[in-house]
Specification:
By secondary structure, the protein is mostly helical. The chain has one domain: Up-down Bundle (Growth Hormone, Chain: A), CATH 1.20.1250.20. The protein has 20 helices and two strands. Strand 1 and strand 2 form a beta hairpin. The N terminus is likely disordered.
């Protein structure tokens, strides 16, 4: 067995922490294995593992504070922005194509590629330079690029700025859960599930703005669609961008985020980590017994040593490669990582393909099923998206009220129930059935989305969390690049794609039962 495969098995839950003995005359911990309550996994750096255990203890000791509450809402704004800007592009695409004479969804391809590149760039950068800079900068850049997109006068510049929107916004889903998780006490980690509620809010707002502007400020067809009668899509971008700008300012002024303690410890900055934790405890009158002497007594970490002392392109590349290797450190970790990546990819195929081809499929089933006006289409879409707000709330309630289900159980419920309702679309006969089934499908899908978004960063180690989260999100972004091409060239008037979508969602729901880790009973290193 290689060094990287030699995990240090440690006690994970609060009850079993008492089994960790420390000699008064020896600063190193004596690790006692509890086979029923193991830490999720640890790195090959045992000093880092021991320091992370002390940081976890300090975070649990401080508990949930008003700082965590502010961070919850401000991190949620990143989820809000991601879906708001993605839906912004999809909602106006038809009218932009009318104006510039396109039929292929080229703008969708560019924003999807931007989201893919952004997820990898911001996520991997967060493991190298820290969470704070990327957390603040990604949202600010998103708002600026969105406002500028509304002023574009050609398809080329429009697509370029959609790529930039995707690139800037692509870091939000990667970073927001990482930042919040690395400050969060273990008993409150179920709150990560509720981030998808913000995702639904962004989706509803994007559709509502499209409903407000597009029916009254858009051209009727591609035959005659000059800019002066097709201003609706520009108004949609301006208003969406302005809202994101307000949120980015709130991030900079309300929470004044400090670097996460786990990142600091992972990079040999123990004094800063202790100062931050002690500062939070002092501000909110909480206890925090962690001291710098305790961390120093454990020695120096080695895992990021080359990068810290030899900053260069080669050193950075090697460190990124090393972070990826940590995600495949042994058989169990590899199994977890592969299943997560596969789940994200299949989700990225199933859900966007469903939303891309469904309107066309319904249109072939007669006017009694699908709305015949632009306003009617957006009205039905708004109802469905509003109902989706219930999905993350249901997921959070299931985890809180029925803890024995765990993350894996709720993932399975969300995936399998979504599959059943997707398949139900082949039997709808009326517009009311269309809206009802669409609404329920969105809600059940968001049960799965909510838990997967929370589960993914929970089971990656802190030292490589940004990298693991980035690659996972990148897989679903890669699928999002592929699905518009599938929808464009396939026979979307048949029911075959909907069966494929349902099967993908059902399979990943069942795959969740094979995930080796259950964060509801294990602490994260």
């Amino acid at each position: 067995m290689s060094d990287i495969e030699k995990e240090v098995v440690r006690v994970s839950t609060r009850n079993s922490l008492s089994n960790l003995d420390v000699d008064d005359g020896d600063s190193a911990e004596k690790l006692v294995v509890d086979s029923d309550n193991q830490e999720l996994f640890s790195s090959e750096d045992t000093v880092l593992d021991r320091k992370m255990k002390l940081v976890n203890d300090a975070i649990d000791e401080i508990g949930f504070t008003p700082y965590h509450l502010k961070l919850f809402f401000l991190s949620g704004m990143g989820y809000w922005t991601d879906t708001q800007l993605s839906y912004c592009e999809s909602s106006v695409r038809t009218f932009v194509n009318y104006q510039f004479g396109y039929s292929f969804p080229v703008s969708n391809e560019l924003i999807s590629i931007g989201l893919l590149v952004g997820a990898l760039f911001w996520g991997m950068s967060a493991d190298l330079i820290g969470r704070k800079l990327a957390f603040n900068l990604s949202l600010l850049l998103s708002s600026v690029f969105t406002i500028l997109t509304g002023a574009m006068s050609s398809m080329t510049t429009y697509c370029i700025f959609n790529f930039l929107i995707g690139f800037a916004a692509g870091g939000n889903l990667v970073l927001d859960t990482c930042v919040f998780l690395e400050y969060l006490p273990h008993k409150d980690q179920w709150l990560l599930t509720l981030f998808a509620f913000f995702w639904s809010i962004g989706q509803v707002i994007a559709v509502a703005l499209a409903y407000a502007f597009l029916p009254n400020f858009s051209c009727d067809s591609e035959d005659y669609c000059p800019s002066h009668i097709n201003r609706g899509w520009r108004y949609v971008y301006y208003v969406n961008g302005a809202m994101v700008l307000v949120m980015s300012v709130l991030r900079l002024t309300v929470v004044q985020l400090k670097e996460t303690p786990k990142f600091l410890v992972s990079n040999g900055r123990d004094a800063e980590a202790v100062e931050i934790l002690q500062g939070v405890a002092k501000k909110y009158n909480r206890s925090c017994s962690l001291t710098l002497d305790q961390l120093d007594a454990l020695g120096e970490i080695q895992i990021n040593d080359d990068y810290r002392h030899h900053i260069s392109f080669k050193g950075t590349f090697n460190l990124v490669k090393h972070h990826v290797a940590i995600l495949f450190a042994n058989h169990t970790i590899s199994r977890s990582t592969i299943l997560i990546f596969l789940s994200w990819f299949m989700l990225g195929i199933g859900y966007p393909l469903y939303t891309s081809f469904l309107p066309i499929y319904l249109a072939t089933r007669g006017s009694e099923i699908s709305a015949t006006t632009v306003g009617g289409v957006y009205r039905d879409n708004l109802i469905s998206n509003a109902v989706s707000l219930g999905g993350p709330l249901i997921a959070g309630a299931l985890l809180y009220l029925f803890p024995k289900l765990g993350r894996r159980g709720v993932l399975c419920i969300g995936g399998v129930s979504s599959m059943a309702f997707f398949f139900g679309y082949t039997q709808i006969k009326t517009r009311a059935e269309n809206v009802a089934l669409s609404s329920i499908s969105f809600a059940t899908m968001y049960i799965y989305y909510a838990v997967l978004y929370a589960y993914t960063p929970e089971v990656f180690p802190s030292v490589a969390r940004g990298t693991g989260n980035a690659i996972a999100i990148a897989f679903t972004r890669l699928a999002a690049v592929i699905t518009p091409i599938i929808a464009y060239y396939s026979n979307t008037s048949s029911s075959v794609p909907i069966w494929i979508c349902g099967a993908c969602i059902g399979v990943i729901g069942l795959l969740a039962l094979l995930f080796p880790y259950e964060p509801s009973v294990h602490r994260v290193v």
